Amino acid sequence: MEIAGCHQLTLPYPSKCQGMHGHNWIVTVYCKAEQLDENGMVADFHVIKEKIHGYLDHGNFNDLLPFNPTAENIARWITEQIPGCYKASVQESEGNVAVYVVDDKCYEL
């Protein structure tokens, strides 16, 4: 999904990223389960979009998230929001992608 949003990073060294700036983030959510649910799904895409896109889109990530909003931290946060999510990738610009992987096990819904 594509999410428009702004952020500024808190870093211990000088960086342009310390100033407020925005991206059109590309987010990919990976979910798995040992069995499909009663609807034949691992996860409902609508629920994922609402929890992630619906919450973050066109927002200031510094106001919406309780941590330094790096792509890596955002990817981790996404895995924590979606049951069965074991991996999330967050691209903040072309060639800058962070991937967070929880582990290799399957989750029960």
Name the features.
single chain, alpha+beta, 3 helices, five-stranded mixed sheet, 31% strand, elongated, 109 residues, 5 strands
Q: How does the major sheet shape up? A: 5 strands, mixed
With helices defined by DSSP (H or I, 4 residues minimum), what is the helix count?
Answer: 3
Low-confidence region ranges: none
Count of distinct strands: 5
- Helix vs. strand class: alpha+beta
Radius of gyration: 15 Å
Shape designation: elongated
In percent, how much strand structure appears in the residues?
25-35%
Q: How are strands sequenced across the largest beta sheet? A: 3-1-2-4-5
The N- to C-terminal Cα distance equals: 23 Å
Reading the helices and strands in chain order gives EEHEHHEE
Q: What proportion of the residues is helical, as a percent range? A: 10-25%
| Mean pLDDT, all residues | 93
Task: Describe the 3D structure.
With 109 residues, the chain is α+β, with helices and mostly antiparallel strands. The protein contains 3 helices and 5 strands. A 5-stranded mixed β-sheet has the order 3-1-2-4-5. β4 (85-93) and β5 (96-101) form a beta hairpin. The two termini are 23 Å apart. The model has no long low-confidence stretch (mean pLDDT 93).
Brief write-up:
21% of the residues are buried. This protein has helices at 45-56, 61-64, 71-81; strands at residues 2-7, 21-31, 59-60, 85-93, 96-101. With 109 residues, the chain is an alpha+beta fold.
